[in-house]
Design brief:
The protein contains 3 helices and 5 strands. The chain has 106 residues and is an alpha+beta fold. Strands 1, 2, 3, 4 and 5 form a 5-stranded antiparallel sheet that branches. A hairpin with a 2-residue loop joins strand 3 (34-40) and strand 4. It is globular.
Length: 106
């Protein structure tokens, strides 16, 4: 699992699509906007962001991170991942079969 936050709906859609087209994610959930509060360059900030919840594999994480870094409008995008401790075996097999890192040819 991985996640990132984007500053607007259009960039969230663009990054989600780039991750799927690169085949480094099997599924990306574009969640409802949320209010983020954080420190940035010594200033307390408050802004609306669009979270992406990304289903991927450990094998594809580095490539996923590279796609986000290339497509994300922030200087330092949030890109975090965590391992799953359990999941429906058929679902996890589907994620592994789709997040291959090899884009399909049309």
């Amino acid at each position: 699992m991985a996640m990132t936050n984007l500053p607007d709906e259009a960039s969230a859609e663009r990054v989600a699509r780039a991750l799927l087209q690169a085949r480094v994610a099997a599924c990306v959930n574009r969640l409802a906007p949320c209010q983020s509060e954080y420190w940035w360059q010594g200033q307390l900030e408050s802004t609306q962001e669009w979270p992406l919840l990304i289903k991927t594999t450990q094998r594809q994480y580095a490539a996923l991170q590279a796609v986000i870094e290339a497509e994300h409008p922030y200087d330092v995008p949030e890109v975090v991942g965590w391992p799953l401790s359990a999941g429906l075996p058929a679902y996890l097999a589907w994620v592994a079969s789709e997040a291959t890192g090899m884009p399909k040819k049309p």
